[in-house]
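User: I'm writing a tutorial on reading structure tokens. Could you give me a worked example: one chain, its sequence, then its tokens, then a sentence or two explaining what the tokens reveal?
Assistant: Sure. Here is the example chain.
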Amino acid sequence: MKCFILTPNFDCKTHSGLIWATDADRKTAIKSSSNISWNPYRDVSYKVGANTWAATGPLTEESKAELAKLYVLAAGASASLEHSHVIGDPDSSIYVDFAVDDAFVEVMNALDSSLFEFTQHKNIIDSERDCSPWNRPVYLATVLSTLPTYNLEKSDLRIATGVKKTHSGSYRSYGSKRVVKASVVRENILWRDAYTREVMCTQPALDALAMIGVPEWDTREIEVFDD
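And here are its predicted structure tokens:
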């Protein structure tokens, strides 16, 4: 029984970051500090936990409507994204941080349709080549399950202090040791950890990703403790 954190593979030529913008031009990219009426890095809200560290479950309808007005820019890829399936990375953020194509949706729904919420998105641009990256449907992906995965007594994690209100309850590393509970790993395929918001998975999820090929993402294996 193994457990993994999904991480970026920055050495992959088709690895890209996901940037939110008000138009197809990189000059319209939104920053977390941008003073606009609705900021995708600050105001995205979930049906459980709203826009706090405890956020989980599907996006609210208001958030979906606001995101639909914006552009997703794929930034940083040194090669064409034509044969890729993901833009961005599963990160610890509260906002929506990656988009996927229909092949990703198909393989993950076949594995377990309760893992993600997929919201189709029309406005997407490969900002390095100034074109649409895919001639196929694009979806914003939201990990639906959030679980307290780590054994805190055995992991170098402690609650963060001095953080903004929305990040209350977050944990940070003070060393490299991480240990997860077997009871969580045994029963789940892909989820966010409740302490760090890292996206974690077990082998069935990696096997599904391998079916379509997602070299833009890497993994870090985490020790499993039989609780």
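What the tokens reveal: The radius of gyration is 17 Å. Helices lie at 61-68, 102-111, 182-187, 203-212.
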